[in-house]
From TrEMBL:
Origin organism lineage: Bacteria, Pseudomonadati, Rhodothermota, Rhodothermia, Rhodothermales
Superkingdom to which the source organism belongs: Bacteria
Key words of the record: Hydrolase, Metal-binding, Pyrimidine biosynthesis, Zinc
Protein name per the record: Dihydroorotase
Enzyme class: hydrolase
Binding site for Zn(2+) 2: D153, H180, H233
Gene, per the UniProt record: pyrC
Residues reported in the UniProt entry to bind substrate: H64, L65, R66, N96, H312, F326, G327
General function of this protein: Catalyzes the reversible cyclization of carbamoyl aspartate to dihydroorotate.
Length: 427
């Protein structure tokens, strides 16, 4: 923690209160030393933040880092590199690794591998043993080892009774269950959104109903058990309605949306010519669903923005559409799509989206939100909401390159993060 740095000339946005003002931020020994006007660097390096905003560091609560076991797609180190480039100082990583993060030793392995990085890596433990959906994993033991939440992401917890027990256990250890919501009996073999486009393309569809039915079940289970339930990658209008209604009833339910689910529709599968980078879980939906996600973000039904960063190697994605694995990158394109589609058109304010990136994920996971208080560890993101740019392959910092956004216009860039006594600039 030997970082001495003056971030000068920027606008400081407190993601908690939404208040912003022009101020310098002086960091000494990795800690906030002062926030104010015309601060003296006193020998510290100076980062010129003129025209830029400084907020608490952002957190992506849904990424796949592929370690252990699938290091050809991503590693904790390359995933952290992509995260920092995208403006994130923290990520929570899903347990669908090999072996899965389903025991305490793997939780601890992930934490060990992340030591010394500028990005905090919080492992999520599996809900069920081996992610097989049959018996509960040792949730309390994993929580004691540092698991911040539980999820079988990549797969749903199909068995309702098991999900009930999972929420009861999650409640006793004070952590949420993050649900990949998909009733497999309603989606035996789909590859894209069920609807007119899938019919035209001759691809088996994934009905929105499969997602909505399971979200409804789990909202009811959350209400019944008092265990906290969080909806991963919400994608349909009806699903947003179900969550809105559950919240109205006071159920302990939260939700996240991913940029690709508001930036693209299922039309992209057709216009891209069956590009396997338009294939993910849940699938790209319709324009009406996109509108509902924006409405849900705006009215607070959807608490957080998360990316579901899901790297896959080129040789895995460069196959026929129905053979390709589900998932796309997210860390590098999150902010550009957030400003372009939410802030610029006035769907949400800058303060609101930063809250959904810096505050909401940590609150959902029970983590402390960084502050600008003097003496606290400096955990910051430096960004703008004005730079217009085109995303290119050269911007990818992940080990894999599976993104449908190469060539897409973006607005807003993350320029640097400060965390764990380190400054990482987006080069
Ligand atoms: N989102 C995806 O399409 N894929 C994810 C799994 C998941 O998040 O369900 C992956 O691990 O590749
Ligand atoms: Zn999932
Ligand atoms: Zn995922």
């Amino acid at each position: 923690m030997s970082l001495d740095l003056l971030i000068s000339g920027g606008t400081v946005l407190d993601a908690v209160t939404g208040a912003s003002r022009r101020a310098d931020v002086l960091i000494r020994d990795g800690k906030i030393a002062a926030v104010g006007d015309a601060l003296d660097a006193g020998g510290a390096d100076v980062y010129d933040a003129a025209g830029k905003t400084v907020s608490q560091g952002w957190m992506d609560m849904h990424v796949h880092l592929r370690e252990p076991g699938q290091e050809h797609k991503e590693t904790i180190q390359t995933g952290a590199r992509a995260a920092a480039w995208g403006g994130f100082t923290a990520v929570a990583c899903m347990p669908n690794t090999d072996p899965p993060i389903a025991t305490r030793d793997v939780v601890e392995f992930v934490r060990k591998r992340a030591e010394g990085l500028a990005v905090d890596v919080y492992p999520i433990g599996a809900v069920t043993k081996g992610r097989r959906g049959e018996a509960l994993a040792e949730m309390a033991d994993m929580a004691a080892g540092g698991a911040v939440a539980f999820s079988d992401d990549g797969s749903p917890v199909q068995h309702g009774g098991l999900m009930r027990r999972a929420l009861e256990y999650a409640r006793t250890v004070g952590r949420p269950v993050l649900g990949h919501e998909e009733d497999l009996t309603l989606n035996p073999h789909g590859h894209m959104n069920e609807g007119a486009v899938a019919t035209r393309l001759g691809l088996p569809g994934i009905p929105g109903l499969a997602e909505e039915a399971m979200i409804a079940r789990d909202c009811l289970l959350a209400e019944f058990t008092g265990g906290r339930f969080h909806v991963c990658h919400i994608s349909t209008a009806r699903a947003v309605d179900v969550v809105r209604e559950a919240k109205r009833r006071g159920a302990p339910v939260t939700a996240e949306a991913c940029p690709h689910h508001w930036a693209l529709t299922d039309e992209a599968v057709e216009t891209s010519g069956y590009d396997t980078n338009t294939k993910m879980h849940p699938p790209l939906r319709t324009a009406a669903d996109v509108q509902a996600i924006k409405d849900g973000l705006a009215d607070g039904t959807i608490d957080a923005i998360a990316t579901d960063h899901a790297p896959h190697a080129a040789f895995e994605k460069e196959v026929e559409f129905i053979e390709a694995p589900f998932g796309i990158l997210g860390l590098e394109t999150c902010w550009g799509l957030t400003v372009r589609d939410l802030v610029r058109p006035g769907v949400l304010t800058l303060a609101q989206v930063v809250h959904k990136l810096a505050v909401a994920p940590r609150e959902i996971l029970g983590l402390d939100v960084p502050t600008f208080d003097v003496g606290g560890a400096a955990n910051l993101t430096v960004f703008d909401d004005t730079t217009e740019w085109t995303f290119g392959r050269e911007h990818v910092r992940s080990k894999s390159h599976n993104t449908p956004f190469v060539g897409s216009p973006m607005v807003g860039r993350a320029w640097a993060v400060v965390n764990n006594g380190q400054l990482v600039e987006a080069d």
